[in-house]
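pasting for the record
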Amino acid sequence: MSRILVVGASGTVGTELSRLLAAQGETVVKATSRQPGAADQVRLDLVSRAGLKEAFDGIDRAFFLAPPGHADQEALLAPLIDEARSRGLTKVVLMTAMGANADENAPMRKAERRLEASGLAYNIIRPNWFMQNFNSFWLHGIQTAGQIFLPVGSAKGSFIDARDIAAVAARLLTGDAFANRDFDLTGPRALDHTEAAAILTQVTGKAIGFTDITPEAMLEGLLGAGLPKDYAAFMVLILGYFKAGYAERTTDAVLQITGQAPRTFEQYAKDYRASWV
């Protein structure tokens, strides 16, 4: 068994990943930017780098991601990768996002390249847009207006359940069959937001629709919600990529790695029904 550091352990993917690893008998060390409140937590502030070296004490393997709210992901991920290299970790799994490798100058891609050149055994996973966005980031519009407000038109996305991302990460962290490979992770099929809203309506019994808004309106809403200006602009930018069709592609990576087909949007909606009713 290994001692595995999970960065982002309180997030959507990290919470499920930590649970899966612990269920397999692994020792999970959960990184938190706050003061640790449990024996399995360690303080690690990616912005200030406070606790960086201490977080890696005794660690064999690690899972990295950049937390939301920061547009320069490389600045946060590079110290993690460098520390993992100096400690000689036996495996690092890095989560970025589908499309991160489309631009060699993008911060996420620079972080990927840094890991690839590190000499460490690694995997890079690039999930598509999370299904869980509908019960978190897009929830306010659904609750207050019965609408999903996004600047994406009729474009489709092969949304993926965060639980499937965690299952992939757990398999890659605890095995070496796919070492030094990268994977784009998607759900089983692509849906537009009108189709997604119809499924939510059917599952919840509540009228939920989709309203296409302008990028300017999206930016205004994100800034109003308190997001930093550079990160709000980044979100609008990648939503533009969604509208251009870059999120529609599907892959068989979840099935290939875990042996299980990825969850459908219908199953996700049933499991999270309480979020909207």
